[in-house]
Amino acid sequence: MAQKPLRLLACGDVEGKFDVLFNRVRAIQKKSGSFDLLLCVGNFFGSTPDAEWEEYKTGIKKAPIQTYVLGANNQETVKYFQDVDGCELAENITYLGRKGVFTGSSGLQIVYLSGTESLNEPVPGYSFSPKDVSSLRTMLCSTSQFKGVDILLTSPWPKYVGNFGNSSGEVDTKKCGSALVSSLATGLKPRYHFAALEKTYYERLPYRNHIVLQENTQHATRFIALANVGNPEKKKYLYAFSIVPMKLMDAAELVKQPPDVTENPYRKLGKEISIGKQIPAPEEESACQFFFDLNERQGRKRSSTGRERKSPHPKQPRKPPQPPGPCWFCLASPEVEKHLVVNVGTHCYLALAKGGLSDDHVLILPIGHYQSVVELSAEVVEEVEKYKATLRRFFKSRGKRCILFERNYKSHHLQLQVIPVPLSRCATDDIKDAFITQAQEQQIELLEIPEHSDIKQIAQPGAAYFYVELDTGEKLFHRIKKNFPLQFGREVLASEAILNIPDKSDWRQCQISKEEEETLARRFRKDFEPFDFTLDD
């Protein structure tokens, strides 16, 4: 028999408006039936007179539901919380304590951390320290059987929680919130995490707690920030949800991924997050590579600033990785067919594909020698993304959507293929279905990964893989273990379901003369010029 879910309510800053809150709870229960618990985060007490609270404290009034609250977030309200280990404040209203774990009779596990972050000693009575967070993590995460907790209650938001997620509105999650809370959420992997203090409502898209294809699938986390009770803007301050304790759930059901799941917002923050340090923004490096200036004399070099170097002893630029031998795609190589190059940036360039599926089939290529997207340095990745976004705008203006794919198998230099598909030909879902269907027919395991995922977290440098990126940002990924059809990406796009040019699935059957290639390249440069971001540098 399936376990009956618990019905819970979570609330943001009450700020002493007890009647408003409990009247609202009564109305909800009258309409929707009874709830098991009310969990309050943020400031339970406010700066208002104590008359209203006295009625609850003395029993004149009573909370309509068992209510658990966090402790003080400022010196003014410390007086209400006499016992740091938790105590009953009034009938049906319980202070959980400074930090700890509450386990209900149902097996529901709730971890709580009261107060705001403090990195100074001695820690004020309304704050928590790195030691508090460390002790909670050690207490819970030290066993090999630990999978996560059901609910995490904190008053501050976790810093960086907006990374990879939907907009958090006016709250800048790179500046607001607590890095210690981020560390705690990373370690505890709560299924639900509630916070407050920012006087706004924010339900972040659920995020995963594992690295796709590298770790076993784990449950997702839902972060929900709640507004203050009775706020005039009518922002949501009360959140109703049902939950079956994870200890009682079927393992497959527990780890089932929501369709809108994103990357973990804290994944890349490094060791500093675990000790509450401020994480500095990365210093900008001055890009100092060279590239060919196609707007002037062919083959003439200029620096990435666009200015010619006149010093007889110029500072040597930091060199990109070098190929082990001749490379057809390193821009400085004599093997490159320069007449196909249509745009050059600081770290990347665009070239028409030789034997392209269409006249405007282009490649995004790094100027230096990199074998795959996984191996690109941060500044190269940034420019690749800029080219991708620019090409999407360019093709959209011409009534097309663009599909990108990379095959890191039997290739030595990254070639990110960009193929435009007329909007009138088919929808994005049709293209996605065509790739999945043809992959199944050829016994290729093509996995769908969320749009916010980073390929670098799925494939290690040197690993062979194939991936497709749709115009929606969705990605399909295949880890190549043995053989892989070299023309698979072209075959799918050339198929009847998409471009309906099956005779062009092999690029060698699509070659044209150099004069024709030069004509197409000139036309593309001219058409692309209004979108060319390199002209702004």
Give a short synopsis of this structure.
By secondary structure, the protein is of the alpha/beta class. It is built from 9 helices and 24 strands. 19% of the residues lie in helices and 19% in strands.
Which stretches are low in confidence, meaning pLDDT under 50 for 5 or more residues running? 274-319
**How many domains make up the 3D coordinates?**
2
CATH class of the largest domain: Alpha Beta
User: What portion of residues belong to β-strands?
Assistant: 15-25%
Shape: elongated
Major β-sheet profile: 8 strands, antiparallel
What is the structural class? Answer: alpha/beta
The main sheet orders its strands as 17-18-19-21-20-23-24-22
Rg from alpha-carbon coordinates = 29 Å
Helix content: 10-25%
What do the pLDDT scores average to?
86
How is the quaternary structure best described?
single chain
What does this structure look like?
This protein is an alpha/beta fold and 537 residues long. It folds into two domains: 6-255, Metallo-dependent phosphatases (Purple Acid Phosphatase, chain A, domain 2, 4-Layer Sandwich), CATH 3.60.21.10; 338-531, HIT family, subunit A (2-Layer Sandwich). The protein has helices at 18-32, 51-57, 130-141, 179-188, 251-254, 378-397, 428-441, 488-494, 514-528, and strands at residues 6-11, 37-40, 67-69, 87-90, 93-95, 99-103, 109-113, 116-117, 127-128, 151-154, 192-195, 202-203, 222-225, 238-243, 290-292, 301-303, 341-344, 348-352, 362-366, 400-408, 416-422, 447-449, 465-469, 475-479. Strands 17-18-19-21-20-23-24-22 form an eight-stranded antiparallel beta sheet, with helices on both faces. A six-stranded mixed beta sheet has the order 4-5-3-2-1-14, with no helix packed on it. A six-stranded mixed beta sheet has the order 6-7-10-11-13-12, with helices on one face. Strand 20 and strand 21 form a beta hairpin. Helix 3 packs parallel to helix 4 (179-188). The radius of gyration is 29 Å and the shape is elongated.
